[in-house]
Structures are given as structure tokens and as C-alpha cells.
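HUMAN: You are asked to prepare a plain-text protein record giving the amino acid sequence and the C-alpha cells, both parts labelled.

ASSISTANT:
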Amino acid sequence: MDPLFAGIDLGGTAIKAAVFSPDGTRIADATAPTSDGESLNGRPLWQLRVRDLLAQLESQTGPLSAVGISAPGLAAPDERSIHSMPGRMSGLEGFDWTSWLLRPSLVPVLNDAHAALLGEIWCGAAKGARDAVMFTLGTGVGGAIWSNGRLLRGHLGRAGHFGHLCLDLDGPPTIANMPGGLELFAGNHNISSRSSGRWQSTRDLVAAVSAGNPDALAVWERSLHALACGIASVINVVDPERVVIGGGIAVAGPVLFEPLAKAIAQVEWRPTGRAVPLVPATLGEWAGTAGAAWHASQFSAPAFP
């Protein structure tokens, strides 16, 4: 019988859980609300729900060979917990998943953007790549780096936080205290201020762009120029063979990718004359679960492509 691997993706609003076969096929999944800030008998509800989701899946599929966790924040070096996630998800920092889930082997924990890229490497848009980067575009701007066939985490797990690339020395700080960071130009959290209050979300802005609104187009083009400069800067630093765009904004399709490709063409260094391919993520909301499952599989069985 083939081994089965589960990934749990703990998000701010929803918990996604899925079971995968060794070739990356998702064979079962389940979701539950995170209910951040709510508790039962002194425990955060999300802790109880993760355990319940795992039991639910295992009752459907049979025994699991490995389980992995994807969560916001910086993963601890021993991979048993998230060691830094200030400001939200009370109870997450230092929470030992292996002990809580009572598994016979390590339940490794990954940063959610790192997990999303691993999922795309395993069975998505970056499959087969030795060098790739992923930009996750949502409330802010996150990301991850796959370099020479391995995930680049850095000394403290900070690698891939592309939203804090400095694009304006005199700009306001990001949450990491970086002036004029990329996420201030391309994140969803400040669309209202960037559009003088006319649009409240990236979805609203994209709809206005699609309808031909010239003011929306001006805001959108400035955002994409900033994003293009950020992407080209990362290309210069890590030299990927592919750039994957994920997160909620990626579903915008041609409204995003066509003008973004043109903006990148204006600033990308192309020694060979060829552009680094820019591709949309293909796993959608399940990328984090896939990456967490693949990562966990490496602790329980020989590596597979």
C-alpha cells in the first residue's frame, strides 16, 4: 500500500487539511474556520480543530505515514513550532505540534509561503525547477526561494519576505520597519489609502480596471511597476529559472500577468536575451497543504520527485 501524507495549512480565517499520495494527488480534504481569538477550556479553538480535521481525514483514508504543518510566522530551527508570529494567532508561538498531534514521528512546521512554494515545486507550477521563487500576493507580499534544489530558509527563517524589499528610502515603514517596502505598493492591506479611498480591496480595484476606469488603471499600473521592480530585484539576487505568482491576486489572470510582464521587461536584466518565465501558481488554496505534506514525507520515507 502506498504511503499517504497529510498537510495542514493554518490560515488566519480558515484551516485547510488534505491527504496526498506520493505523486502529489490530493485524495481527501477538509476545512474548518480558524476562529482566531476564540477558545474552549483554555485552549485556542484552532488547536482543537486541527486535531479534529486530522482525525476526520485519517478515518477516511486510513493510517497516515507523515503529517506536516504550514502556518504564518517564522518556523523554529528544530521545525517543531513557529517561534515568531507577533500580533495575531495567540498560542501559536512555541506551540509543539508533534506533542499535540501525538504522532510517532516529527510533525515538521513550515512558514506558509515556504510551504506554498514547496507545493508548487512538488506538483504545481514550479515542478521540475532547480531554481525558482514564489511571490505570494495577499494582505501583504510574501514569498519563498527554491535554490539549487532546496528551500532557502536563512539563519532565522526570514528568507523570502519580499514584501520588505525597500523601494522608497523615504517611504513609511512596513511592519518589519523597512521604509517604502514592496508590500506598501502591492499589498491588499492599504488599497484604500493608495487609491484615496475609492477602492477598498484589490478585487474591487481589478474590477474597476477591467471596466476601463482610468483612475483605477493609474493606481494599478503604479502597483505593477513596483511589483515588477521587486521581482526583477529578486531575479538579480537569486537568478531563478521561474517566477511563480500566487495568493489571492493571482486569480486576476491577464489583467495582472499581461501588464506585469510588460513592466518587468522594462527593468529585468536579461544577459541571454530571454525573460525569466512568469507563471501563475496552479494549486490555489491547497498549495500550503501540499508543501507541508511533501516536506513531512521527507522525514518518513525516501525522497521522491
Residues 301-305 have pLDDT under 50 and may be disordered. The first strand starts at residue 5 and ends at 10.
